[in-house]
Request: fold
Amino acid sequence: MDAETGIGASVLRKEDARFITGKGQYTDDISVFGQTHCVFVRSPHARAKINSINTDPAMAVDGVIRVFTGDELVEDGIGDLPCGWVVNSKDGSPMVSPPHPPIATTVVNYVGEPYAFVVAETLQAARDGAEAVEADFDILEAVVDTATASSSTQIHENAPNNQAYDWELGDKEATDAAFENADHVTELDITNNRLIPNAIEPRAALGSYDAASSTYTLYTTSQNPHVERVVLALFVNVAPEANLRVISPDVGGGFGSKIFVYAEETAVIWASAKVGRPIKWRADRSESFLADAHGRDHVTKAQLALSSDGEMLGLRVKTIANMGAYLSTFSSSVPTYLYGTLMAGQYKTPAIYVETQAVFTNTSPVDAYRGAGRPEATYVVERIVETAARELNMDPVELRRKNFIPPDAFPYQTPVALEYDTGNYAASMSKALELADSDGYAARKAASEANGKLRGIGYSCYIEACGIAPSQLVISLGAGVGLFESAEVRVDVSGSVSVMTGSHSHGQGHETTFAQLVSDRLGIPFDSVNVIHGDTGRSDYGLGTYGSRSIAVGGSAIDKALDKIIAKGKKIAAHMFETTEDKVNFAEGQFSYEGSNEPKPFAEIAGAAYIPAVYPLDELEPGLSEKAFYDPKNFTYPAGSYVCEVEIDPSTGVTEIQKFVAVDDFGNVINPMIVEGQVHGGLAQGIGQALLEHGIYDADGNLSTGSYMDYTMPRAADLPDFEVDMTSTPCTHNPLGVKGCGEAGAIGSPAAVMNAITDALGVKDVPMPATPHTVWETIQQGA
Amino acid sequence: MKVDLTVNGSQHAVDVADNALLSDVLRETLGLTGTHVGCDTSQCGACTVHLNGSSVKACTVLAGQADGGDITTIEGIANGDDLHPMQVAFRANHALQCGFCTPGMIMSAIDLVQSADEPLGADEVREGLEGNFCRCTGYHNIVKAVLDAQANM
Amino acid sequence: MEERGEFVIPAHPQEVWDALQKPDVLKECIDGCEEMTLTEEGMFACVVAIKVGPVKARFTGTVKIEDPNPPHSYFLDVSARGGAAGFGSGRAEVTLTEVAEGTRLNYEVQGTIGGKLAQIGTRLIQSFSRKMTRTFFDRFSRRWVG
Reply:
């Protein structure tokens, strides 16, 4: 292997060459001949009955080509936007998923829900047209608040108590018994604030229809173009799957929000055939705030049962999860199978019982956002563990160490369904404490106090289940799709390699990481590997990128395809060596045979594969191109220890993060530079959640934080330098021993920050985000 | 209205609407799609370009206001294959992930370094980039890159 | 959104009452009012251009006087639409009380706003409406002073 480009090397990214020169091709950068522009007409009301929509004044606007309402889509057989994961309630009944037409027809249920769209020659004309559409609404009472939604006015006819489902996991009786035997019970009521993902590239779509071939091409900002295609074909009925090509070109960040199948691309691709011209749409930012799925928004009551010496005996968690107005694509799985299953954390807690009531409100749909369920779970576990330590007058580090699942206990079956394959939590903790200079904390705290400041330290030891995931397991739990990944490794005649992957890169650097994997295994130059992704016309299938699954699942699929390439290469080489394939070795790019002193480089075998002179064609097909589908046996379980140190100015309530240490165990790492970058980004979003970000609706259901003037995005000066390091227990069930790193930072960090803030203030809880105002008020209340 | 713009050294006489934004003219009329638009309230900075040597948010400048101006976009800072030190530093320090904020970030960073009287420290870089959002990197490597580039500018 | 306040106007309640019914007086006193017409008894149609922070729009609306009890009290039902900028509606109770300096006018408004105005301008709307009200009564009172 090449030490500079192989597995484990911090290779600089291939894709950067275009991004730093402005040559990236994002959806809105692509224009096609004859393209028209589209603007959506969105509900200004949180909940209203649509009496009538008058599109005539819009049609009269110069440049407007067509105005569509939801009825036209319905008449054309366009289906509802589906939720792809059926979660059952405690009583076995399936969740309630209210009808969700892409374009509203009879009712609107959140501010921003589209009820018409205008196609025009120019964007300006489309905007003018959208403004001219007249609608008559009966405004209805809106439901906004998560905690009281189930006792409020019923929104959907088929959802009594505004409930989507009431789900449970774990052994209730065993948990009750654990509480009966407990010496101490720690209780914590916490909320997980609603977040708005805010990838810096707004969502966009460019749809066109070719009448000559009856095919549709959709360029869109999707994290999973194949899933987009199958949903649009199979559920929404836009076109037969074979006639639909979905391309996700460069995508400017996703963080979950670009997984889902939304109204806009559905409308654009459908209407392109009606109009007979390509249609482009790009969200304005204030539109993104309303129209992108939001994240988090939980209200939780948690109880932890302990023995007097700090042994964790049982955990009870009862959560109300706000789903927004409709069930978005994967929303149902987030506060259930991606949440309740993580309640064991890194601990041996023997009895756990989790209940989640999912409720509808007249707000934007809530779905997966970086971490998806796992940040919420970590927040519950790590906040209550820290609180318990304080109540028991124990060092929070010691309490955690006492309860860690020990390294020799793996594979470890938790009481909440998951089987962790490997881990060494104490190792990460020790490394984190060392980096955080925990021994010097007392002196730093004293120095802060001398300056009239409050100092606090907080820990968070997260675990997550990612590398999503084994198909048969998730299908048995209600998922409507498999969660394998596909890969094709196409060796060219000259020995260069094209890799088609079903994973999609929107910042993760797959073009580099996957090329490292291929060049390392085939022993060929890094630069002769070209990674292709994001186009249903070029790769067979794919489930896309989310749940930190690209390397663990997509990378393993590539690895499997490489096995096949090497196996076929050996067969070809065997004929060239005039021996049998079992006598051929492949290492460092050379096929060798002990009976020959002339090993054959990979490129020579590639050439021979396409110029089939020496091998019998009835035994071996020409060519060297292999496909593989990889379905993992289990999730992967990245885990880590985070330490946060804050200093608070009591006169202003301003919190400054003075130190943030993250030590993660991602198993084997292909490109440490990229992995560290992923951690940095996750930390920024987690710290943003803890200190700054909050999606707020007013009582009427208007999104008060609907622009960057009111939704506080973390800026450079809001964040500290991060100290990031790693430990490694390789994953035991995938061929690369990798785990996945995309979400860890966002999962582990909020609890660390809030544990530090509550430590500094000497209070049990401060609601997120801990803005200066909130912190200042907390201080005043205590004074 | 007719507007004369010098963009990346080339002269353009373009006919634009009175309300046309510089960002739209760069992207739509001149095809310079490296200048990105990430918001509608002049906060995200993805559209940052240089107008007469200073960074401006192109989504907040009317094309008419730039009449006669000398504009540099991300496409214009390299000298052929010779990348600008800021571009080199961004790649070398992994200061970008999805790449969408990158052009604006680089243009802001160049102006920040060029207009500083003395070498900037990390805190000053953080303060100086307050007009540019990045959602991917947590800014950690961006700060490193700017400090790194500063030494070579 | 709720708002209440009072102003003292240097005129007799009946004079205040009469003036408040006149479209031209209302037009003159409402900042940004471009049109104000009496469409039927107790019913006005109006066009008002406003700017709240970054949201700038021309609102068309109706104002309806309900339960008039001259010259003591009435209710105002207001609804206005500003296209893409949003909409507003509200109900105000206005009472006039004779005091030594003239008339004390009390008002109590309950209103809602929506659309872009609510999304972008919500932080500013309270101070905006206070300023708008103050401007109205400043101009209105000036009819009787100097």
